[in-house]
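Session log. Operator J.P. requested a structure for one protein chain; no other inputs attached. Running the standard single-chain path with token output.
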Amino acid sequence: MTELAIYDMDRTITRVATYTPFLLHAARRRAPWRLLLVPFVILSMLAYVLKLIDRARLKEINHALLLGRHIAPAELALVTNSFADKTMAHNILPGALTQIAADRAAGRRLILATASYRLYSEAIAERLGFDDVIATNSLIGLDGRIRHKIDGENNYGPAKLRMILAWMAAKGLDRSQHRIRFYSDHASDAPVMEWADEPFAVNAHERLRKLATQRGWPIVDWG
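Structure written below.
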């Protein structure tokens, strides 16, 4: 039986979330004038809190404001690589590195399953030695430029399990032939944790900590 080790990223592997820091990093590097649009970013976040827009739409709005409505892949690579290097230097939890190394040594296939955009999480995953990435995808136009719109689902909540299952089907992986462990910090990943053979509540916030205690899932701290 083949073993898979699936990891969430933000606040599981990283100390803090990466999405807004990435957009701010990109704005500073590419077009500092876009930082003047931060008040509109804050307004969009307020709209999300008030449930006027969903999480996917929030991402699209902030992407358009701070990165632009479209960008060429080569231009994007300049900021994704520098952001990935910065993340590796300052925002990776030591316990995450230890566990990733242990899973790799045990022969497990390493998969990063994150709600963050593939456009930058893939660069972080590569530096961490992951084999595969399941992430929120961006729409790519006929001209090859990357749009601010999400392609498919935002890889969050129940959608994350759907996207993992779709990835397994695309890879020809039979669930019954794989033992799966899953690491996450957030209760939004409960559907995947219920589905996994070995779920781990990592750096868990209060809601997930309570759920893990009820379910008997191991609670670990990678800080």
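Operator note: Residues 73-90 form the longest helix (18 residues).
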